[in-house]
Specification:
This protein is of the alpha/beta class and 158 residues long. It folds into two domains: 6-49, no CATH class; 53-157, Glutaredoxin (3-Layer(aba) Sandwich). It is built from eight helices and seven strands; from the N terminus they run αβββαβαβααααββα. The strands form two sheets. A four-stranded mixed beta sheet has the order 5-4-6-7, covered by helices on one side. A hairpin with a 4-residue loop joins strand 6 (137-140) and strand 7 (145-147). The longest helix is centred in the N-terminal third of the chain and has 11 residues, at 41-51. It starts with 5 loop residues before the first helix and ends with a helix.
Length: 158
Amino acid sequence: MRGCSFRHFGGFSSDNGFCVALRHDKLERSCFKNQEKPVHLRKLLRNFAEKGVEMRIFGLKNCDTCRKAVKLLDGYRFFDVRVDLIPDEILDAALQEFGDDLVNKKSTTWRNLSSDERAMPPRDLLRLHPAVMKRPLIETHEQKLYLSWSAKTQAALL
């Protein structure tokens, strides 16, 4: 890292020793001697921004209820459960707290399931069909979980 002018190439050296650059293809090869690969500035800024996030919302981007929650809340990061699976620790905590209520038995997805799939344990069913989850599932920075956008959830979060 020494002897390499990152300002000239549009990047800088961070405290953790990573080579951070807007365009790593413009950096000198000598800058990467002890590096696995450079970290893009966008990724670093996204990680810094996530540290300030107060809560995480798990839902579907096309769900009207999730849209209402996102519209009214500040300081969140939204995860579309079809794309970004719910982390195991959050899913386990939600199942422990809400049990079978985590599965939305009024949804179209539930109605289209076979009887064998309906008989599956909730954890396996949610991994196989994430859209069957009651939405949104909100985790606050204190690791408190809220399920659905009910009046009780709104009173606690707004």
